[in-house]
Amino acid sequence: MDAWLTFLSVDEPEIIERLIQKYPQFKPMYQQIYYICRNTEKVMELYSEELKILDRNTVQLMIDEMQEELIRKDQQLELLSQQNDQQLLEIARLKKMLTGNCE
């Protein structure tokens, strides 16, 4: 566990060298990290691609949220329309009662 903590947290060459001597299985991992650090263009391409994916996912999430909101608003509008229809029917019934009593 100490070796892993050292691997994950230390960047001093002397300590890294001692770690690799004691635990050779870390050498390929350090080589890969070294390659990535040396090849910054590749790292930037990966980062750029990840940002594109993140942007695309964010846009899709916003679209999904807007569609859900639109569905809720449509449901609210339908409910208000039904209530309005009921009120109009009630008004018509009351008018009919009034005109029927006045004649």
Describe the structure.
By secondary structure, the protein is mostly helical. 90% of the residues lie in helices and 0% in strands. It has 4 helices and no strands. It has helices at residues 2-9, 13-22, 27-38, 40-102. The longest helix has 63 residues, at 40-102. The chain is rod-shaped. The N and C termini lie far apart (97 Å). The mean pLDDT is 88.
Q: What is the gist of this entry?
A:
By secondary structure, this protein is mostly helical. The chain has helices at residues 2-9, 13-22, 27-38, 40-102.
Chain-wise SSE layout:
Elements: H1 2-9, H2 13-22, H3 27-38, H4 40-102
**Sheet of most strands:** none
For the terminal residues, how far apart are their CA atoms? 97 Å
The rounded Rg comes to: 35 Å
- The class by helix and strand makeup works out as mainly alpha
DSSP summary, beta strand count: 0
Q: Tell me the fraction of residues in β-strands, as a range.
A: under 5%
Chain-averaged pLDDT: 88
Helicity range of the residues?
over 70%
